[in-house]
Amino acid sequence: MTAETQGTLAQAAQAGLAIVGEVSVGFPANRSGYGQSTYGNTQPQTEEATWLRVHPDGTATAFAGKVEYGQGIRTGLAIEVADELRLPLEALDVVLGDTDRVPWDMGTFGSQSTARVGLQLRRAAATARETLLRLAADRLDLTLDELVCADGRVTSKSDPTRGLSYADLLQGQSLVEPIAEEPALTSIEDFTVMGRDEQRIDAVARVTGRAVYSQDVQVDGMLFAHVLRPPSFGAQLEAFDASVAEQMPGVVQVAREGNLLAVLAESDEAGELAARVVQAEWSEQPGQPSRWDMPALLLDSGAEDFTMQEAGDLDAGFAAADEVLESTYYIPYITNAPMEPRAAVARWDGGRLEVWAGTQRPFGIRSELAQLFELDEAEVRVIAPEIGGGFGGKSIYAPAAEAARLARIAGRPVRVAYSRIEEHTWATFRPAALIRVKSGFKRDGTLTAWEFRAYHAGERVNIGRRGSETPYDVPNVQVSVARSDSPLRSGSYRSLGGAPNHFAREVHMDEIAERTGLDPLEVRLRNLTHPRFRRVLETTAERFGWGNPLPEGHGQGIAIGLDVGSYCATAVEVRARGSEVRVERVEVAADCGLIVNPEGARNQMEGSVVMGLGTALYEAIDFEQGRLLNAGFARYRVPRIVDAPRINTTFTGDPDTPSTGAGEPAIVPIAPAISGAVFDATGERHQELPILRHR
User: Fold this and answer.
1) ω into 500 cis (within 30 of 0)
2) Residue 227 to residue 23: CA distance in whole angstroms
3) CB atoms within 10 A of CB 78
4) Is 573 in a helix, a strand, or coil?
5) Residue 30 pLDDT
6) Phi, psi at residue 665, to the nearest 5°?
7) What crossing angle do the helices spanning 398-410 and 362-372 adopt, rounded to 10°?
8) For a designed S-S bond to 214, which of 235, 298, 337, 358 qualifies (C-beta 3.0 to 4.6 A apart)?
9) In the chain, domain spans
10) Which residues share a beta bridge with 585?
11) Are 620 and 332 in contact (CB under 8 A)?
12) CB of 626 within 8 A of CB of 288?
């Protein structure tokens, strides 16, 4: 290798591109462009910022900073690359969530994986395809227009027997290509994989137990930590006596750093037994509120409103109305309740820290750990294994820092794993919300004025902004959102504040229908001109058979929603008997633009519906004096298999429209649709969730 070649390779490596005997596709010439266009700012990149590699054997590997927590993005991203690169799906591998190996990413939330990262990988794959075409043109002495890529080969259009495989083209090659500014993306009519139902490429590994989750990770020399948790939120550790625990078999030490107190043992069982005999003294915060205090706390916070939508003159709109309606809606705290509790393993190697954590934000956790230990980010590696559910809640990941702190104390790798009770108690919660709606309308149901004021608990006002704006045609409107103090640790949840805001708005539309004696579907259509909204609403109503007679004790409800750029409508049939309510069937229509994998998108819609069913009927966090009262699945009810309704999904989007998120839109209209169906079946109007607590 010449000195000039060595220098070129060194420069490329310094720029964040891996160099091997293959084609590597990295960032475009403006390497900060992805961070700027995606998130509005320039972010630090990994040492290797490669998006795609085509290997000498003709297979390919895609790299992305997203993580897989059941939503199916590994498959979706592989499909997009396979179609652009003209490879069979089985020739694709996808590496996710390893901060030493993948491009920087803000995190996996907001249903952005397909919309943003998928598009970036398509551009990378198209760049690689064009590179392979150029190589083949030189080797075959043909022009680019005379060549075509298919099934991992480049062949002559006029003579398919004349061609070369990708493996043939890459023998002895070491190529690094920046992503082209405007590569020739595959047109819809030429898709061979996208748009078809595909089985998940990781399905077999998951059902056979080969998939490795954060709870499964073990490394040589690892200690098992059992952290002594405070008896209540905000309690501080004053003193402890571990003399008995330290003498027990298998116990290595009892470690304390600030409020962190843990038994470190050679086995999980030894640590758990020893933790039971550690005597800890805690000082607790008196006078903490309970769940019954929340409506008043939300209103009394004094936080300044943030205006989301404003037009016309509210006073004039109410004056022009035939009737004015005011209602208040309350939604309690709920938990994300992922099937897999959090776990993390940390290992120090000299001054370098390596952490395995099932987090939705590997790079965010890397930054937090680097700051905590005063390290350069290059000295911290975070690896996200498979994740058993996240729903936004695993963006914050305390066990990663706990494991790293304890590993530094012990001088050995340490594992911290939440129990089910710990997961429910020490994770974050979707904030409680109180929403006041005042509307003015004509006798024919036409809106003249709309005033919407939402109060969401939590530190971030943006939690409550999502989904607060009304899509209905109303000339005089004001929508505002305020943040209030939160006695519980609030955080992300599927759709953030979108589902609570939609619940209030759509139930209020049902109340307008009741006041005017009109059908709920008709009231919505009379106030809705947006074509994509109307399409999903009309499709849902038609597929559901809206207005057809139902058996006695059954009712129907309908609602619309918008989240992460996707439009959705849901119609529900419920059966009400005594104090119980069962959702019998759900019809969903969604417009997510271009659908990469319809089977995966349907799975997301169905998961959102079942999750939203739980928030509508059962779920609420009970707490008092800083203590959670219903931690664990024995006390906190979520939907079970027997609760799952029949769900049918129809996609109405135009494939020429860019992909938008599929993971969250179906959760925002399901609760108001269920509420409307319960009213239709029983005559009971529910303005507070969960419904079964108030029947």
Assistant:
1) no
2) 47
3) 28
4) strand
5) 36
6) -60, -35
7) 40
8) 358
9) 3-208, 215-284+342-417, 292-333+429-693
10) 573, 646
11) yes
12) yes
**Any bridge partners for residue 675, and if so which?**
none
CA distance 344 to 464: 30
With tokens 């619309």, the residue in question is 560
For 215-284+342-417, the fitting CATH number among 2.40.50.140, 3.30.365.10, 3.40.630.30, 3.30.470.20 is 3.30.365.10
Question: 3-state secondary structure string, 501-543?
Answer: HHHHHHHHHHHHHHHHCCCHHHHHHHCCCCHHHHHHHHHHHHH
CA separation (Å) from 135 to 84, 219, 300, 360, 424?
Answer: 17, 44, 69, 39, 56
Mean predicted confidence (pLDDT) in 125-146? 96
Nearest by Cα to 323 from 508, 521, 452, 501:
508
**492: phi then psi, degrees, rounded to nearest 5:** -70, 150
Indicate the DSSP class of residue 305.
Answer: P
Per residue, the 3-state secondary structure of 25-79, as one string, reads: EECCCCCCHHHHHHHCCCCCCCCCCCCEEECCCCCEEEEECCCCCCCCHHHHHHH
CATH fold of 3-208 reads Aldehyde Oxidoreductase; domain 4 (3.30.365)
Token pair of 412, please?
């050995």
Instruction: Examine the pLDDT at 2 and tell me if it is beyond 80.
Output: no
Q: Which fold has domain 292-333+429-693?
A: Aldehyde Oxidoreductase; domain 4 (3.30.365)
Cα(668)–Cα(145) distance, rounded to whole angstroms? 48
pTM of the predicted model as reported, rounded to 2 decimal places: 0.93
